[in-house]
Specification:
Radius of gyration: 28 Å
CATH class of the largest domain: Alpha Beta
Helix content: 40-55%
Shape: globular
Distance between the termini: 72 Å
Number of helices: 26
CATH architecture of the largest domain: 3-Layer(aba) Sandwich
Largest sheet: 9 strands, mixed
Strand content: 5-15%
CATH topology of the largest domain: Alkaline Phosphatase, subunit A
Number of domains: 2
């Protein structure tokens, strides 16, 4: 009578032992929660229903807030997409990562990221990016097995503006495709960019939010969040998924004269939504958390919620205790905007938020009582000097504490195509090498906001082909700032695009008088000289551009063209070869190299280059004609005919 019971007991013990082994086995385990991070680009906290905004149509985001927690007072340290996401992914301030703006920096691959840390724990890691502002060339792909940026930089900018961003439904489509192929645990990051200016929501939101298209974009983003929630529930993944919804920065919407973001550091662009839905078994005791939190705290908070320690060098502090109802003493919050300095050589802005007060260090300092004045309309600096000086000292101490001997970012060239795409998306992106002119550190950005917005309009006009309007606005702006590097640089590009190469040369030469090592200006001056027929000057400046930025494959290619026009064929071959060495996927470079080798009678060397050009650009008829010519030179008539009949034809790989 006892034998079956004993056998059952032994089986039960064996099963318990196996379960225990599975639970404690490091790395891949079904017990580990999945992580889904959805970054809501350019979304203000006060435009979400869960944050009290009655006109909002955000039922899905609100539902996550109801099931998890939302931080009422979450703030980004920097109101620009790239550095804000660097903060999110590394748990470090820009002073450590070196990611202050779009300024020729790349996240150091040696710096731990949320993706790299989770991958070490056995997580599959995937990301789908909504805009070229987070292109993998900035290093944000660090730690991801799958990083879907894939923006087309090959076509002319004027015909390719929309291809620099993708709508939220496309992001979610691609993310869910990846998710179907994964087994838990996984980390999926979806970047929704729709709320970024210009606000053009799709139907029916376009019609329903005619008076406030910004809210319409957020409603569309909410719909995409709902699709992710539905997919997780359908796959029975929702309960065991730690879900984070977070804004990277807000939007000015005209407050303080700022239409978009990145220039100032007020609540309009710093205060962001942060909502966390814990995994099963980790239910939060509080639904609303009133204490302040910085986005630098998110990485250590997620790691602690997963039962993992934060590595050395993390500057944020875990707020996981707040999810359990505990309230640790709040930290002082740091914020910065280096955009005015890096791109215009006006003063940078740095701020500390301590309790109810925010102090902004600037040539004209500011102090605000956020509890009484959340819109930051009454500057208390003059009447609260003692408090201001105390906060100034604390800001200095905070900066010193978080600034290492050397920033970790890798210096990298801001390639011309990428720089143009960033400008098309509304980012200045004019600090691509060297200093941007003479220092004007005493110029307070508050005194230049009207000028900045005029410049932004001129940049938008230029990117959309309205060159006459852009030229007129820049001429008005340069009456105020006659020696502005970005203004003269953009004016030079305007004249170049309207084929007024004499004026383009004059503007770009003036840029280099102000800033001799301004890499992109050197490069475009070389192009302008080439178009004007002065190939000697073109070659000189393109050579200099490559000295300043050895990664500029386009400079190498155009140098090859200039050398060819000068009759320097051997040098031209070397330059074309250099262009494809820098960028092996550059079809035009392979074609030019192959054609030049063919011209020189080096058919055997030419054919591999031309075959690669056809492989990369199979629909380009001229490239296929060049390959066919080379094949015929070798007596391969049948293969030549096949190449001309079928795009991508020719000898198989």
């Amino acid at each position: 009578m006892q034998l079956p019971l004993l056998t059952s007991l032994r089986r039960w013990c064996l099963l318990a032992w196996v379960c225990l082994v599975l639970l404690v086995e490091p790395g891949f385990s079904a017990a580990q929660p999945n992580v889904v991070l959805i970054s809501l680009d350019t979304v203000r906290a006060d435009h979400i229903g869960a944050y009290g905004y009655k006109p909002a149509r955000t039922p899905n985001i609100d539902r996550v807030a109801a099931e998890g927690v939302h931080f009422e007072r979450a703030y980004t340290p920097v109101p620009i997409t790239l550095p804000a996401h660097a903060v999110l992914m590394t748990g470090t301030y820009p002073m450590r990562s070196g990611m202050h703006d779009f300024s020729g920096n790349r996240l150091n691959p040696e710096q731990p990221t949320l993706a790299s840390l989770l991958r070490k724990q056995g997580y599959a890691t995937g990301a789908v990016i909504g805009a070229a502002v987070l292109d993998g060339r900035f290093g944000m792909d660090s730690g991801f097995d799958f990083y879907y940026d894939e923006f087309d930089f090959n076509r002319l900018l004027e015909t390719n503006l929309d291809a620099m961003e993708r709508t939220g439904n496309v992001v979610v489509d691609r993310g869910l495709e990846w998710l179907k192929q994964q087994k838990p645990p996984f980390f999926l990051w979806l970047h929704l960019y729709d709320a970024h200016h210009p606000y053009v929501p799709p139907s029916p939101y376009k019609e329903q939010f005619q008076a406030n298209p910004y809210d319409g974009e957020i409603a569309f983003m909410d719909e995409q969040v709902g699709r992710v929630l539905a997919a997780l529930r359908k796959g029975k993944l929702y309960d065991n998924t730690l879900l984070v919804l977070v804004g990277d920065h807000g939007e000015g919407l005209g407050e303080h004269g700022e239409k978009t973001h990145g220039f100032f550091i007020y609540n309009s662009t710093l205060h962001v939504p942060l909502i966390i839905k814990p995994a099963a078994g980790q239910a939060a005791r509080k639904k609303v958390i009133a204490q302040t939190i910085s986005l630098v705290d998110l990485l250590p908070t997620v790691l602690e919620a997963l039962g993992q320690p934060a590595p050395p060098g993390i500057q944020g502090r875990s707020q996981a205790a707040a999810l359990k109802g505990e309230a640790p003493a709040p930290d002082d919050l740091y914020a910065e905007s280096f955009l005015p300095k890096l791109h215009f050589n006006w003063s940078e802005l740095r701020a500390i938020q301590s309790g109810r007060y925010r102090f902004i260090e600037a040539p004209k300092p500011e102090l605000y009582d956020l509890s009484k004045d959340p819109g930051e309309t009454k500057n208390l600096f003059a009447e609260r000097k003692a408090l201001s000086e105390e906060l100034r000292a604390r800001l200095k101490s905070l900066i010193t504490k978080h600034t290492p001997d050397k920033e970790l970012a890798q210096k990298t060239g801001l390639d011309p195509a990428l720089a143009q795409r960033l400008q098309a998306l509304g980012y200045a992106a004019f600090s691509g090498g060297g200093e941007s002119g003479r220092t004007q550190s005493a110029v307070d950005p508050k005194d230049r906001i009207v000028l900045y917005e005029l410049f932004a309009e001129a940049m938008n006009d230029s990117q959309h082909g309205r060159f006459t309007d852009s030229i007129g606005k820049l001429n008005r702006a340069m009456k105020v700032e006659p020696d502005s590097v970005p203004m003269h640089y953009l004016q030079g590009l305007n004249y170049y695009r309207t084929r007024d190469y004499t004026q383009a040369v004059a503007e770009l030469r003036h840029v280099l008088e102000l800033s001799p090592d301004y890499t992109l200006a050197v490069y475009h001056l070389g192009l302008a000289y080439a178009q004007a027929g002065d190939f000697a000057q073109a070659a000189q400046h393109l050579t200099r551009a490559l000295e300043l930025d050895p990664t500029n494959f386009s400079a190498a290619f155009n140098l090859g063209v200039a050398q060819m026009r000068l009759g320097k064929m051997a040098e031209s071959v070397n330059s074309f070869r250099r262009s494809v060495t820098i960028n092996p996927g550059y079809a035009e470079g392979h074609r030019a190299l192959g054609e030049m080798l063919l011209y020189l009678g080096k058919v055997d060397e030419a054919l591999p280059e031309l075959r690669e050009a056809v492989r990369l650009a199979p629909d380009d008829a001229n490239t296929r004609m060049s390959l066919a010519k080379g094949l015929r030179a070798k007596g391969l008539e049948a293969e030549a005919q096949e190449v001309m009949r079928n795009p991508g034809g020719g000898r198989p790989e």
